[in-house]
UniProtKB/TrEMBL annotation:
It holds the Pfam family DDE_5. SUPFAM superfamilies: Ribonuclease H-like. It comes from Micromonospora inyonensis. This is DDE superfamily endonuclease. The keyword Hydrolase applies. One of its GO terms (molecular function) is endonuclease activity. Residues 433-495 are annotated as: Disordered.
């Protein structure tokens, strides 16, 4: 007899075997070396601290020189690998919908002067708790979130931001491709709930909502506390001196409670971690767009109406001061959004979905600190892209092996049920699961290392050095102004 639990294990075994077979087919050059490199990352004892040290792992049957050679001369069919990752089982929220989170994380390379296409990456906490720019490669990730308290996500795509690219345009194209692959794989069908996209305050939510308006996607974004939105205009009476109809109504200033008015929806929820959570929502608020930056070529500026949510919690688990969180939920274009205002139940689902967005931080920490995403000292950005997708493929195997892993805990760790195992605990037992999974990589062929440069002969071809890309040519110039700054500047207002 096969129980329900055994049937689930059988499905997980099949998914893991299928993914490993398809992964090897996606490796078009140095396939065996790249495949064994991903296995070495999964089967290494402890965190990955050095790329050549992975050659000492038993699952990697090649020498240490094959590691960097595989990343430098290997090839990965990324488009096919994206399709394979999207076809795997997808985590969903409690109501069955797909919730995607987007964020940018950086591979810092501050001292790598011979590395091209570096950008000043935004970092915090380096130095005296200041926001400073460090040269590196920023990557935009799209992951699928699941419900409940968990450190698991499903990375679906990663794109390196090239110098001079616009974050909103790259993210919109990335999300459009991800949603198309999910629809092709059958994870979303007509009639299903819309896909939610959750993002932090660093994104232009209005721009993304406009670029994705033709997809079954709804945007939920956090806004800065110094923003200003507009209400719908009041009734307009035509007359000889009235002018054209107004497009914007009164202001909703985040920092001025007198401009808020009575909220349309108010909910109070008791939580275990945050105490009493109070959410207040105001419907039909939109940002006032101007013909600058990304909207410079837009013939007619749209009215992007949404619901603004202010979330106040009683306490934070860390003990820090609890600050209010402003969330903007895109509901439609102008008058089309009148019947799509969220009810109290939807308001609670929205701010809870935003809290789930922080699960992506656990994924970034695992990729960097455990799987060694930022460990290799690569010079070619394309080699960095190949290594990034190998890490994503390794993490996907951990996610598929999650129902099969046993708890190999340390003596000082608490026992955890199988459904509560973290990705690091699943990785401890992956070596045992690999023995029962297909390994299409062939045995290495005997070879000898090359002679290299003769001793005593200097290098007559020095490596080219590259400058760090900055937004403007005057960014590093120090400008002196004779105008005295005011002691009480006016608050910043954008909208």
């Amino acid at each position: 007899m096969i129980s329900v639990h055994d049937a689930g294990r059988g499905s997980a075994v099949g998914d893991l075997a299928t993914f490993r077979t398809e992964l090897h087919r996606c490796l078009s050059a140095r396939a065996d070396a790249l495949f064994e490199l991903a296995d070495a990352v999964l089967c290494a004892d402890g965190p990955v601290r050095s790329l050549p040290a992975l050659s000492l792992v038993a699952e990697h049957r090649r020498g240490h020189g094959a590691l960097y050679d595989a990343l430098g001369a290997g090839r990965i069919d990324v488009e096919r690998l994206r399709t394979v990752v999207a076809s795997m089982p997808m985590p969903r929220a409690a109501d069955g919908r797909i919730v995607l989170a987007v964020d940018v994380t950086c591979w810092l390379r501050p001292e790598a002067h011979t590395v091209p296409e570096r950008i000043l990456c935004h970092t915090y906490g380096r130095g005296k708790d200041q926001h400073i720019g460090v040269p590196g490669w920023p990557y935009s990730f799209v992951v699928a979130l699941e419900s409940g308290r968990s450190s698991w996500t499903a990375p679906l795509d990663a794109v390196r931001l090239a110098p001079g690219t616009e974050l909103a345009a790259v993210t919109a194209e990335q999300l459009r491709a991800v949603v198309d692959r999910l629809i092709t794989a059958g994870h979303w069908q007509p009639g299903d709930p819309a896909v939610w996209v959750v993002m932090d305050a660093g994104y232009d939510a209005a721009r993304l909502a406009w670029l994705l308006r033709d997809l079954p996607v709804r945007v939920l974004a956090r806004m800065r506390s110094d923003r200003v939105l507009r209400r719908p205009p009041g009734p307009w009476i035509p007359g000889p001196k009235c002018g054209r109809p107004p497009r914007h109504g009164s202001e909703f200033i985040f920092g001025d409670p007198a401009s808020w008015g009575t909220p349309d929806v108010t909910t109070v929820t008791e939580t275990r971690l945050y105490g009493t959570a109070t959410a207040r929502a105001w419907h039909r608020l939109h940002p006032r767009l101007t013909r600058r930056a990304a909207w410079a070529d837009c013939p007619e500026l749209p009215i992007l109406e949404g619901t603004l949510i202010r979330l106040d919690v009683q306490r934070l688990p860390s003990g820090a001061t609890a600050k209010p969180v402003w969330l903007w939920w895109f509901t439609g274009l102008g008058h089309q959004s009148g019947g799509d205002n969220p009810d109290p139940t939807m308001i609670d689902l929205l701010w809870q979905a935003f809290l789930r967005r922080f699960d992506i931080e656990h994924t970034f920490r695992l990729l960097k600190q455990t799987l060694g995403w930022c460990v290799p000292k690569l010079r070619d950005p394309h080699a960095a892209d190949r290594w990034t997708w190998l890490i994503i493929a390794a993490y996907t195997q951990l996610r598929l092996a999650r129902p099969l892993a046993s708890d190999l805990r340390r003596p000082w760790e608490r026992p955890a049920p199988p459904e509560r195992l973290t990705p690091a605990r699943v990785r401890r037992g992956f070596r045992h699961l690999r023995a029962n999974s297909p390994c299409p990589a062939g045995a290495p062929k005997p070879t000898r290392p090359g002679p290299g440069r003769p001793p005593g002969r200097p290098n007559r071809h020095p490596t080219r050095r590259y400058d760090v890309h900055i937004a403007t040519s005057n960014a590093t110039r120090k400008t002196t102004s004779s105008k005295k700054k005011s002691a009480n500047p006016r608050p910043r207002r954008t909208g």
